[in-house]
Specification:
GO terms for molecular function: heme binding; iron ion binding; monooxygenase activity; oxidoreductase activity, acting on paired donors, with incorporation or reduction of molecular oxygen. This is Cytochrome P450. Keywords: Heme, Iron, Metal-binding, Monooxygenase, Oxidoreductase, Signal. It comes from Collybia nuda. It is a single chain. With 488 residues, the chain is of the alpha+beta class. It has one domain: Orthogonal Bundle (Cytochrome p450). It has helices at residues 28-39, 58-66, 69-72, 79-84, 97-109, 119-135, 140-157, 167-178, 189-192, 207-235, 243-252, 262-293, 295-308, 324-336, 369-373, 416-433, 473-481, and strands at residues 42-47, 50-55, 346-347, 352-354, 357-359, 364-367, 434-438, 466-470. It has a four-stranded mixed β-sheet. A two-stranded antiparallel ribbon has the order 4-5. It has a two-stranded antiparallel ribbon with strand order 7-8. The chain is globular, with a radius of gyration of 23 Å. The termini are far apart. 47% of the residues are buried. Bound molecules: protoporphyrin IX containing FE.
């Protein structure tokens, strides 16, 4: 279809295939940012039967995804995610009544005004994490994923995850592993030619559907076990307060949201505890990488904690306002290499014209959040990790906190306030007590890892070694003596 108003600008396309061969499988954020230098903030790419719109600035994303959110809050159909059994799941539900139901359920539970109630869970989790990091520093990633899963499992279905060998944690890990498949969010050949999902895995083009079909069992377990666990606990009269128990009770009393179904609750719980944990531990993994690579920032953060909190106790949420540099470390960790570099794709419901550019109905609309974090007009020397950039001038550069990493409009991350709390308490507790540095090789030389990242749905640092040790005897005593009683 040739529109009267031109599409947004974009590079020349091949006939039929359009830009499909030009889009790289990895580092797409950087690729789109390079294109933006020539074609501007809103780029149009052709993929077979579809328009692919990439938004490269916060301003353009706000204009379309927020101010025109009635038109840009749909999601593209993601055949592979559905084939895996991710349905009905808020993150990928199309815009409509079922989306609104799920969104309301999740948003209500993680409202900014209410999340302080979950802090005892986050504090306890961060203390267990300190103890685990001190006793087995080599298993850093396992501890981080256990921390993130433990707080979300506790809140979503009242489960007390206390060990790294927990059978349910292994299901979560397996589900996360599935999500490491590159391109799952509208980036595989099956998204461009959905008919391919029916091919057997040995057939050319059948690789992705094969991966998705094999993952079904895991994804099913991931959705089912929280439900069975809560039912069991409710039958014994021992269910702890949780998202699932609250919603099931509402359903039992017939007083909850009328069209609520068990499937909806299972789907909502699944997306929160797996998606939320994946992004939280991924960001914490990034934090370790930055602290190892930028020791001067680590020292500055520790000096601030030593002055404000001292060494006689662990930091608490009440300290947050008095620790401006720690806030900057958190914000810079979220910006520097954000875990969802292209957010989650939106989709347009109707034809639209914006600034003389035509955006057809059904376009896949991507917010290039990685590109926004690297925008040189907003962030000086954007590849450098520099928390001070947010401090007011003349001490800092007065640059704004990043916002793009949590997405936009009616699909903005509903867990963002909770996520920031989970990250803050962990980051400040680690900085208060542990020292992170480069690991040494056999000859005693420091190992500097190459900056490498995974390229699945979420982007994490590739595995890297680092040294983690208590900062001093006082810190070791604080970790050993930390109160890990369950006060929630
Ligand atoms: C560092 C941590 C996190 C980051 C960077 C992050 C980022 C994002 C992004 C970029 C989106 C897509 C927004 C859009 O489409 O414009 C999203 C959606 C979502 N996030 Fe988060 N998130 C994080 C943690 C969490 C946590 C802890 C939870 C749960 C408590 C959560 C629950 C969700 C859900 C349910 C959606 C789907 C919303 C929808 O489609 O309407 N996230 N998140």
């Amino acid at each position: 279809r040739k529109p009267k108003v031109p599409f947004p600008p974009g590079p020349p396309a091949l006939p039929v295939l359009g830009h499909i061969m030009a889009i790289p499988a990895v580092d797409q954020g950087e690729f789109f940012s390079e294109l933006a230098k020539t074609y501007g903030d809103i780029i149009h790419l052709h993929i077979p039967m579809r328009s692919y719109i990439v938004l490269n600035s916060v301003e353009a994303s706000i204009e379309l995804l927020e101010k025109r959110s009635h038109n840009y809050s749909d999601r593209p159909v993601l055949p592979l995610m559905e084939l895996m059994g991710f349905f009905p799941t808020l993150s990928i539900l199309g815009y409509g009544p079922r989306f609104r139901l799920h969104r309301r359920m999740v948003q209500q539970y993680f409202k900014r005004q209410d999340i302080a109630a979950y802090r005892p869970i986050q504090i306890r989790g961060s203390r267990v994490l300190l103890q685990n990091l001190m006793s087995a520093p080599d298993k850093r990633n396992d501890h981080l994923s256990q921390y993130a899963s433990s707080i979300l499992m506790r809140i979503t279905f009242g489960y007390d995850l206390t060990s790294g060998d927990d059978k349910y944690l292994s299901v979560v890990k397996a589900a996360s592993h599935v999500l490491e498949t590159p391109g799952l969010l509208a980036g595989t050949i099956v998204d461009f030619f959905p008919i391919l999902q029916h091919l057997p895995s040995w057939f050319p083009g059948g690789y992705y559907p094969g991966v998705a079909r094999r993952a079904r069992v895991i994804i099913q377990q991931m959705h089912d076990f929280p439900y069975h666990y809560v039912q069991e606990q409710m039958a014994k009269g021992q269910a702890k307060p949780s998202f699932m128990a609250t919603n099931l009770e509402a359903l039992n009393n017939q007083s909850g949201i009328p069209s609520n179904t068990i499937m909806d609750i299972k789907g909502a719980v699944g997306t929160v505890y797996v998606g939320g944990a994946e992004t939280t531990w991924g960001t914490l993994s990034m934090f370790f990488l930055t602290m190892m690579l930028y020791p001067e920032c680590q020292a500055k953060a520790q000096a601030e904690i030593d002055t404000v909190v001292g060494s006689g106790r662990l930091p608490d949420f009440d300290d947050r306002e008095s620790l401006p540099y720690i806030e900057c470390v958190l914000q810079e960790t979220l910006r520097w290499n954000n875990v969802l570099p292209l957010g989650v794709p939106h989709c347009s419901l109707e034809d639209d014209i914006y600034n003389g550019m035509f955006i057809p109905k059904g376009s896949i609309v991507i917010a290039n959040t990685r590109g926004m974090a690297l925008n040189e007009n907003t962030y000086s020397d954007p590849h450098t990790f520099n928390p001070s950039r947010y401090l007011s001038k003349p001490i800092g550069k007065g640059e704004p906190y990043p916002i793009a990493h949590f997405g936009f409009g009616r699909r903005v991350c509903p867990g963002r306030y909770f996520a920031e709390d989970s990250l803050w308490i962990t980051i400040v507790s680690i900085l208060a007590t542990l020292h992170i540095s480069k690991a040494l090789d056999e000859s005693g030389k420091e190992i500097t890892p190459e900056l490498k990242f995974t390229s699945g749905v979420s982007r994490h640092p590739a595995p890297f070694q680092c040294k983690i040790e208590p900062r001093n005897k006082a810190a070791q005593t604080l970790i050993e003596g930390a109160d890990t009683t369950d006060y929630y």
